[in-house]
Amino acid sequence: MSRLGAISRKDRAGRTIAATASSVYGALLNREALESWLPPDGMRGRIERWEPHSGGGFRMVLTYLDPAEGPGKTSDATDVVDVEFAELVPGVRVVQRAVFEADDPAYAGTMTLTWDLVDAGEGTDVTVTATDVPPGIDRAAHEAGIASSLAHLAAYLEAGPSLR
After folding, report:
1. Total domains present in the chain
2. What is the pTM assigned to this prediction?
3. Which of 48, 76, 115, 150 has its CA 20 to 30 A from that of 23?
4. pLDDT tens digit string along 78-97?
5. Left if phi > 0, otherwise alpha if psi is -120 to 50, otherwise beta: which for 161?
6. E strands, 29-139, where?
7. Which residue range forms the structural domain that includes residue 17?
């Protein structure tokens, strides 16, 4: 239960990535990596604050490449999100608490994103589960966005030995 007794919504996406769990974990805690792969299709990201430790976090500005694709949660062309690293288990899990900067109460509240990493032999199964998703975020678009970020993460890690 969350927000005024409503049932917590969960959005989820997963992908097997041809990289070690430690490489995936490293890409979740590397500023330049996150700016590169985390923004979903149609967006670019810039990190303004960076504290890569448990209890730390980051502030990211996501900008729509085509403002007509918006509107954003923070402005017509942007989503600004403050993310806390709630739990860091090297090579296993990263738990983030995300709060969007928005005037619209449909985007209010803290969404939790859990990145689970499981060895899959030749790679790592990465599952992202978002709980307490604000009701203003469309489920299909959100899950497509998570899947897009996972595809970018796979391309980032599978392109070369940068974090392996």
Report:
1. 1
2. 0.89
3. 48
4. 899 999 999 999 999 999 99
5. alpha
6. 43-51, 57-64, 78-89, 93-100, 111-119, 124-131
7. 10-39+89-158
